[in-house]
Structure formats: structure tokens, C-alpha cells
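INTERNAL AUDIT FORM
Audit reference: QA-55
Scope: verify that the stored structure record matches its stored sequence.
Auditor: D.O.
Record contents follow.
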Amino acid sequence: MTQEFDFDAVVVGAGAVGLACGYALSQRGLTVAVLEREDHIGQGVSSRNSEVIHGGLYYPTGSLKARLSVQGRRLLYAFLDKHHVDYKKCGKLVVATRQDEIPRLEAIYDQALANGVEGMEHLTGAQARALEPGLNAHAALLSPESGVFASHDYMLALRGEIEAAGGAVVVRTSFEGATPLAGGGFTVRIGGAETASLACRLLVTAPGLSAQAVAATIEGFPADQIPAAHYGKGVYFRLAAKAPFQRLIYPPPIPGALGTHYRNDLGGQAVFGPDLEYVPAPDYSVDPARAAAFADYIRRFWPDLPADRLVPDYAGVRPKIHGPDAPQPDFQLRGADSHGLPGLMALFGIESPGLTSSLAIGDEVARRLTA
């Protein structure tokens, strides 16, 4: 007897990456249901980030992060244009605030060229200051393809595309687990106002911070294929004064992250962050006392930061799969070759540049599952 499916594909998690996976699958003519336990889409990792469109400068040659960030950026700008989502391609300066940081800029430049990043330029300190007066820079790199955008409007557009293709984005509906079917596909158990189950041919898990917990509820998923979960908290401070720079300003990266940077958001306000602190569980509090450390860091590239003008803003938590003393790994898109369950793609460690890469991640997931 042929198995009947309620949907061709079910996606767990309605953040940017989950919605992008649902969009990519729906564009291939599949019926898709995206499940979200929160009251609205994009309430997890996707709601607490910098809204930066990354150029794709930093990531190792041949990695998924390198390939998907560049592809994703190109796809993202086209999608934003098509759907009239607000963005600002303001460009980014990566600055050497000391002479001894210049070799690090050279390495970033070489990596960016290897990754196919367009338009990269070397700038002297004087050239960087001509673009952004007040900047402390011994040298800089200009990435003209970087920008900022309205990420929630982007997610709303993805939802609209999924629904226009006959799919469903279902909020207030938790994923409780899945069982593989003998003939292929899965029975998915869902909770919410009422518990229920549905059958699907393909299953994608993209729930951000809950990736490990979700994988553990899928019958037959090997425990040794679920990476350890680590939580990388980052806080942001807003400047209670006129924004000093038009472009994104980034010092060289720190271990495990890109470091505290500056952006002029779409509302014209200056925001600094995130820093990085490993925490035992998600925590979104912002300690005003951290402003002093922020100020010290910011004055490395903006010496004229006025005293006592940093205001606590918000915090995000990154779904890391490495600890503070381990090298930062690649995105993990784990298919049947990893866990032995045909039709399942489980995503782990989708932190930065996951938002920029989201459309390319979706295409990659859909390609692997439908090949």
C-alpha cells in the first residue's frame, strides 16, 4: 500500500533559515509545512542579531560558510529587491587599529579573494579616515557588498512565498518528535492547543538553539551525531548621540566570533555589539555595567566616543557547537550519510553568517534532499 503524506516536507523552526528551507522546497513544487512553537515567526536567534549582510570575507576556503555566505548574499539582495524589503548596502570597513594588526588584514583580504568576494579594496589609514572622519585606522579593508537590512520583513516575505505556493507556516505548534516510516518518510508528532500527528516525505530541522533537543526526539537519530550545544551570548549597546559613521566598522575578528562592531541601523542609530560570553543556558539580560568594557573596546577604533552615552539595548544567543577554547567549526547540514535516516536534514551550529547565507542554505538543503 502506498504511503499517503500530509505534506511533502515539514520544516521545524520558522526563523530565517527554516523559512528559507521551506521557501526553497516550495519553489521545487513541494508542499511544505513550517512548524514554529512561538507565537510568531522569527522569535528566536533570528530576532536578536545585527541584521548585517556579510560579504563573506573571513571563512576558510572550501567551507560551507565561505560558499554559502557569498551565494546567499547575492541571492539575498535580489530577493530583497524583488519583495521591496528595506536594506542599505552601506559597505564595511575592517580596520587595523594598531600597526601590528595590518598582517591580519592582509590575511582577511587574501581569504576574501579566495572566496570570490567582489570589490575588495586596500585602504591606507588616511583613505579610511577620508571616508569616515574620526576613525582610528592604520589601514583598512573596504567591502562594498556588505550592508544592513530589515530581517523581520525578509522573513515575512519568505512566509508569504511559502503560503503562496500552497504551503503552511504554523505558529504555536511545537515539534514533539518523529518516527521513520517503513516505506520512507516520517510520522511527525506536534503539540499546541491540541496534539496531533502528520506524515511527510522529507523532514528538515532548523530550530536554532533547540537543534540538539529536537534531534534527540527523532527515533533512530544516533546520539553520537548530535553535537554538543554551547550558548554564545552577545549583548548590544546603543549610542545616545548622533551616529558617527555611515559604514559598518569591524576590528579584526576575535576567537570564535567577528567581535564587537559598529553599525548605523536602518533607523539611523548607532549600535555596537555583540561581544561574546559563553553561558550555561540562554540568557537575554543586559548588564549596564558592561558599558565600561564596551567603551574601552570601541575607543580602539573611535577614540572620540563620548563618555556615558552607551545605553543597554538587547542581547542575543548564538547556537554554537564549539566551546570557548575550540576552533570555530563549519555549518553542519547532516543528512542520511551522517545519521542514516533518508529524507532527513538536521542543521546544527547555524550562527553567523547564517542570516546572510539563509537562502543559499535553503537551496543546499533542498538540493540534497531532492537529488
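Auditor finding: record pair retrieved intact. The CA atoms of residues 69 and 357 lie 4 Å apart.
Action required: none
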